Amino acid sequence: MHAHRCPTGANIHPLQVRLFLAAACAGLVLTALPAAAQEAPRRGRGRGLNPLKMVRPKAPRIELSERAWDFGEKWSGQKAETTVTLRNTGEGPLRIKEIRRDCSCMVARLDRKVLPPGESEVLHLSYNTRKPKEYPDQKVRIFSNDPKTPVAVVHVRGHIRKVFNINIAHSIEFGVLGREQQAVDSFEIECLYEHPVKLKLAPAQFEHVAVKLETLEPGRRYRFVARTKPPLPYGVLRTTAKIETGLPFLPELPIRITGFVQPPVAVEPAVIEVPSVIHRRSVRTIRLTSRRPKPIQIVKISASLPEIHTELLRPDESAQVAAGAGLEVFRIRVSLPSAEKLPAKGATITIATDDKEFSEIVVPVRRKEVHLRRPRGKSGEGGKP
After folding, report:
1. pLDDT at residue 376 above 80?
2. pTM to 2 decimals?
């Protein structure tokens, strides 16, 4: 091969000329390709060429036979029940995560929580018509893995008619009573049922309360009367009388009777609890009150555990004024050890007085187990209790 001389005087080899012409032809071919042909590979990579991205998961679909349940008019105590069918009309398994009710007056029961495609399950619903709400308006929410309807709702309505009109909530509260006090309380019962109802007291014997049912208008109006029978025990007075109705859906009316017999000498708190998380000494105050006509004296204060220290404080005139006339107030300072130093069975503080009925008042001291929860971090992770 012979080298050619260019106009500038430089020698050009024939091989260089061939390479230059080949590169120029390749550039012309690429320039002539349509823009769509150059973009096609990129479009293909994003859409149809990845088979994993073309497969979509099979989704479930929840379908309810009823979206609303109106149980109509019911007398208080009558049953209100129904069923709703849940069907999976989708292609994937339907998982019921949770069923929420607006209040405890409703019961919702579903036996199966996972439904394969095409299968169904019965949701049992019931409403407690003894609740005082006359026109209930509640909802049952069904949470599932259905992407289109993650929460399916059943609306519950109805009308509840009262069988009896009672001016108080089926109870008598005597409040604070004296040991020798004979208290009397009563209320009327009006029958609102479509037919007259004959009421009668269920047979029962109460040690500290006497009850009776008076007929004001046969089948329509009655009066319930309760009377205390002294001497009454100190502390909480609680019992329940029952009135029989003869109605199959509301066979009886329970009547709660409560009161509190205040002892003339009492301590507060009645029990001292030391939380297990306290690892050092702590201080509490015991307040002893007396309603005796004659003043009492504290003779001695002792503790079953040497680590418990007690001290009778000087009378507090402001506390005495706040308590009122006829009430004596004593304050006892108690220094307690840490919870781990208390025995498993606990300890006691004994307050001895010159009162014959309350010569010794015992205040238990016990350990109270407390479990602290770790605060949740920003990531939402938290420790177990």
Report:
1. no
2. 0.64
